[in-house]
Design a protein that fits this description.
- There is one protein chain.
- The protein is an alpha/beta fold.
- The chain is about 25% helix and about 35% strand.
- It has 3 domains: about 270 residues, Alpha-Beta Complex (Spore Coat Polysaccharide Biosynthesis Protein SpsA, Chain A), CATH 3.90.550.10; about 70 residues, no CATH class; about 100 residues, Jelly Rolls.
- The chain starts with 6 loop residues before the first strand and ends in a 6-residue tail after the last strand.
- It is an enzyme of class 2 (transferase).
């Protein structure tokens, strides 16, 4: 087994709405450092980075997140295949397309399907579980990882365990899956010795594709075709849009795992959370003597068992118990831990009212860097712009606004109507309305500047692009 390299497939298309306002559709939870210094995606990728066990991973991600994924994995030295979903079709189509890409790389490869937004506490125990499940996977089983419940919760699905799998110690057949039962039923399942279903699994790529084709042909056919017709774009693989759009939207659990006779479960000992709510994050986070988790500039007085998180402003609670308070640059959430699961419903209601902050993060990421609106009003807008070293924005002009740039860190190479100048720290430059201009960072440190826009129309659609290194702004 030492010469068998597993291809990790990391699913990175979730929206994480239960962790709003920190997590939003434009920048969901897998890209956030929620349980340490690295993001959940980075932790997931590093967990399967041992070259003795694993081949380079395949990340399947939303097209809108492609540069975030690429940047975060580049920062930790991981070189993946990044496959881009042209539209959302749930996890079965994503898994099918990624498994086909893995099969094209190596027809005999086992694949390890992982969520990008789970927290696993002990990497060595995780790797031991993968090693234990591999013989069963090589023998044609689809092995999921089952955890011994710590409580009878309805947040997770359960696995009822059957007979042992020959030749694979610690692995058993799956008798049945039970999807998120009510608490009384969960108590009975825990008493029976059932496991929590982690939602991650190991299989030969060809086994997985054969079962998906047999059980969900309306999803498998289009997903496989989208991978066969994928085209390269910069460092990405774009799945064929027409094919992928034809796939029936369904989850891999419903399409395959709950129906296949080849399902098996490996009993595992590592700690795990899907970080499905603020309450779940509180459960796995360090807490003070009063049971409070305080993240960022935050404080608690006369309070207990609460989660307080702030990105910028000092956020304090007094006399609160079992509370959740999350303050970002542009939104504040106040709820209780018991009601934390309802945040998803709140976000859906805000989105239905076309509230931009329901889905759009205040920090907008671009292939060249990022920008954040820090103030705005009638006929003006102020942004903080960061440009990565050796990156440049498109050559562009505006019809309705002028801009004034003040450099606060680094040096900017600025082109205005063909004239090029170097603007250093504490210096400024004016971009008149209609001027053809470009901003570039020629240095080796991030360029930071404050941009003041004035004019009658200040949205991002007031940009005429003449030359763009990235194909998108």
């Amino acid at each position: 087994m030492a010469d068998v390299k597993i291809i990790p497939i990391i699913l990175c298309g979730g929206t994480g709405t239960r962790l709003w306002p920190a997590s939003r559709e434009s920048y969901p939870k897998q890209f956030l450092p929620l349980s340490g210094d690295r993001t959940l995606l980075q932790d997931t990728a590093l967990r399967v980075s041992d070259p003795a066990r694993f081949d380079d991973p395949i990340i399947i991600a939303n097209d809108a997140h492609r540069f975030i994924v690429s940047e975060q994995l580049e920062d930790i030295g991981v070189r993946p295949t990044i496959a881009l979903e042209p539209c959302r079709r749930d996890s079965a189509a994503a898994v099918g397309a990624a498994a086909r890409l893995a099969e094209l790389r190596n027809p005999d490869a086992p694949v390890l399907i992982l969520a990008s937004d789970h927290v696993i506490g002990e990497t060595e125990e995780f790797l031991a579980a993968v090693d234990a499940g591999l013989p069963a996977a090589l023998a044609g089983k689809i092995v999921t990882f089952g955890l011994k419940p710590t409580e009878p919760t309805s947040r997770y699905g359960y696995i009822r365990v059957g007979a042992a799998v020959a030749g694979a110690p610690g692995v058993s057949l799956v008798e049945s899956f039970i999807e998120k039962p009510a608490r009384p039923a969960a108590e009975k399942l825990v008493a029976e010795g059932c496991y929590w279903n982690s939602g991650n699994f190991l299989s030969l790529a060809r086994t997985l594709l054969a079962e998906l084709t047999r059980l969900a042909p309306g999803t498998a056919g289009p997903a496989i075709a989208s991978a066969d017709k994928a085209v390269a774009d910069l460092v990405f693989q774009r799945l064929d849009p027409a094919s992928f759009a034809e796939a029936e939207a369904t989850s891999i659990d419903y399409a395959v795992m709950e129906k296949t006779p080849h399902a098996a479960v490996a009993s595992v000992s590592f700690s795990w959370s899907d970080v499905g709510s603020w309450s779940a994050l509180w459960e796995i986070s360090p807490r003070d003597a009063s049971g409070n988790t305080l993240v960022g500039p935050s404080a608690a007085f006369g309070s207990s068992n609460s989660y307080v998180r702030s990105d910028k402003h000092l956020t304090a609670i007094v006399g609160m118990h079992d509370a959740v308070v999350v303050a970002t640059q542009d939104a504040v959430l106040v709820t209780t831990r018991d009601n934390a699961d309802k945040v998803k419903e709140l976000v859906a209601e805000l989105a239905a009212k076309q509230e931009p902050m329901a889905t759009q993060a205040s920090l907008a990421h671009r292939p060249w860097g990022s920008y954040q609106v820090i103030d705005q009003g009638e006929r003006f807008q102020v942004k903080r712009i960061t440009v990565k070293p050796k990156r440049k924005l498109s050559l562009q002009s505006h019809v309705h606004r002028s801009e004034h740039w003040v450099v606060v860190q680094g040096a900017a190479l600025v082109t205005v109507d063909g004239e090029v100048s170097l603007v250093r720290e504490n210096e400024a430059v004016h971009i008149p309305l209609g001027a053809v201009h470009r901003l570039e960072n020629p240095g080796v440190v991030p360029l930071q500047l404050i941009e003041v826009q004035t004019g009658s129309h200040l949205s991002e659609d007031d940009i005429i692009r003449y030359m763009d290194d990235h194909g998108v702004e």
